[in-house]
């Protein structure tokens, strides 16, 4: 979710939470949690099936709201972790659904 990559440095500097290194660490936490969820997607899909997209969207929204209201380093980091865990859930399911439901001759238009 690009809001994390673009808005995190602004929040860190505007609220005097640290410098560019702090913002970089928070963005790295987002990237690592996204990777972890990518590795665990199959396990979550096994339990949630077709609800995984709604689950991912819901927690992306929750994370975005917390991100918007974050005025401390802990709140900002936790919101980035929630976004980082939920974004790959919805995204991976969406791309998998498109790949499986779109006819082969229309694959170029669906991406």
Automatic annotation (TrEMBL):
Official protein name in the record: Uncharacterized protein
InterPro entries recorded: MFS_trans_sf
Transmembrane spans: 20-44, 51-70, 76-96
Sorted UniProt keywords: Membrane, Transmembrane, Transmembrane helix
Organism name: Fructobacillus tropaeoli
């Amino acid at each position: 979710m690009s809001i994390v990559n673009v808005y995190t440095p602004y929040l860190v500097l505007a609220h005097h939470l640290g410098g560019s290194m702090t913002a970089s660490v928070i963005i790295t936490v987002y990237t690592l949690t996204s990777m972890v969820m990518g590795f665990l997607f199959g396990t979550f899909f096994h339990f949630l099936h077709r609800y995984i997209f709604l689950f991912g969207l819901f927690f992306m929204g929750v994370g975005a709201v917390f991100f918007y209201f974050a005025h401390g380093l802990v709140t900002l980091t936790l919101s980035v972790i929630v976004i980082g865990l939920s974004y790959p859930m919805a995204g991976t399911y969406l791309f998998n659904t498109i790949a499986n439901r779109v006819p082969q001759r229309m694959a170029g238009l669906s991406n």
